[in-house]
Please model this.
Amino acid sequence: MYEYPTFQYGKSRFDQNTFFGRFRHFLDVIDPSTLFVTEKRLQECIDMLDHFRQGTLPPGVTDAQLWQAQKIKQAIIHPDTGEKIIMPFRMSGFVPFGTPVVVGLLLPNQTLASTVFWQWLNQSHNACVNYCNRNASKPAPLAKFVQGYLGAVTTAVSIAVGLNVLIQKANHFSPATKLLVQRFIPFPAVASANVCNVVLMRHTELSEGISVLDNNGNVVGTSKVAAKHALLETAMTRVVMPVPIVVLPPVIMAALEKLPLLQRQRRLVLPVHSLVCLAAFAFALPLAISLFPQMSQISVSQLEPEITAATDCQVVTYNKGL
Model:
């Protein structure tokens, strides 16, 4: 039986210094069961955590109950605004609400119109998730969100349509080869658009810097160098994330469609395709965001001189973001 560690408010129950610990943590973050939590249950969790912070917790409340309460609250309530996040745009809703979009992206024999539609819908969903889960501790202009959204949509649609046109004009490809290659077009389009979205929506961090914290969580300065590291790490996760989602399903489906069952029962192809996409998505999301700790560390010697002079710490921490 799993033994829960002693509850720590605002902390993860898994070791964030290891990849496996981060993977377990983000499996909790994306757990879709929190989508079905009632308003009454949510309020009970909030009250339980408030009692813990105030030292008025009733006897008999276990660490397991406290960890579960925190998981539910963090899945539903925005940490900065204190407001409920709209269900389709919660991290716990990213897989169930995003899977139909992924299925559409990977449908074979796409027309120009369907390619544009599914790329637009995918980036629209991504942009809404990014906005609803943004760091809202400081007000950010809506123009930044719009800029990132338009940049991501333009990039995704341009690459997808351009590659489709090139493949159609490639006379040396057989029809079967063209169909196979077309199935992989979403990857460069989605990966490039994801990076574009991150850079455009967070480019002010490069010019203004981000806060770096000492061992006690106190802000010791604002660093542009740390901002570059944060954006680079986030961009890398955005490139890795689509790999299992848009590469594995075409490979798996190409093999499954040769099976006698799917050859005879063609109506089963779409349901099987949907299940394969769901499994790939559920695997890829926590895998990608676990590559780097959300609270990353960097040596003070790599940062600006004024930060070096402001602290005796050898290493400081910054919020990479998701």
Notes: The longest strand covers residues 219-223.
